[in-house]
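Render this sequence as a predicted structure.
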Amino acid sequence: MEKIWKEELGELIGALGLQSKPVAVTFTNDPVEVGGGRKIWLCRALKLAAAGETLLIEAENSACPGGSWHCGLSEPPQGEARRALQRFLTRGEKLTHSIVSFHRMQALAALPPTGFSERIVMGPVEAAELRPDLVVFLCNGEQACRLVALDHYWDGIPIRAELTGSLCHSAVTYPLVTGRTNVTFGDWTARRQQGYAADAVFVSVPYERIHNLVAAVPECSAGSAEVEIPEGFRRFMEDK
C-alpha cells in the first residue's frame, strides 16, 4: 500500500509555517513494532509526537486512567472509582464545580470508544507506517484559523467545536467518534503539567478530510492563494 500520507502535507506545512510536526493518531488491534513499554500520559505522548517521536500506548503503559478510558483502552470508572474521580475533579483538581456539572460535562459530550481498539500509535505523519485515523496539528491561533478555513473551503460546512473536557477527549475522542474536525485548547491540567506553550491550539482532522485541506491550499487565501480585489470593490472600500 502506497503511504501517501507521509508526503502529502508538505505544501500545507510550508504555507502555514507550522513548527510542530503534524501528528498521526492511529487506533489498531494489530501488533505494532514501535517504541513502547514506558509509562506515558496521552497528553504527553501528543506533545512528544509533535516533536518527532513515535509512541505506542496500550492499557498497560497508559499512565493516566482518565486518558485510558477517554480513548477506549479501559472501561469508564464505576462505583467507588467514579466517586473518587468526582471528588478529585471537584475538590482536588477543581476543574468543575459539582458532581452535577461533572455529570453534564460527561453526558453531553461524545461518548468514549470503549473497547474500540487495543492500542494507539502516535507519531509524526511523515514517519507513520499505518494510515492515520486522525491528524492533530499543534499550532498557534492564526494557524488554527487558517486550518479551519481550509477545512470547510470546499463544502462550507461549519465546525461544531467541542472545547471542554480533557485534552485527550477533545483532541482525540471527539473527532474520532464523530468524524468531525475539532479545534480545542485542551484542559488546563494537561497544558500545565505537560508544559504546552501559552499560545498552543490543537486542530484535529479526521484523515479522510485531509485530502480536502491539501487540495484547498493553492485555491484558498488561507493557504497560498493571492487575494484579488475587484476594482469596483476596491473603490467601495476606499470610500469607507
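Summary. Strands lie at 23-28, 55-58, 119-124, 134-139, 182-184, 201-206. The longest strand covers residues 23-28.
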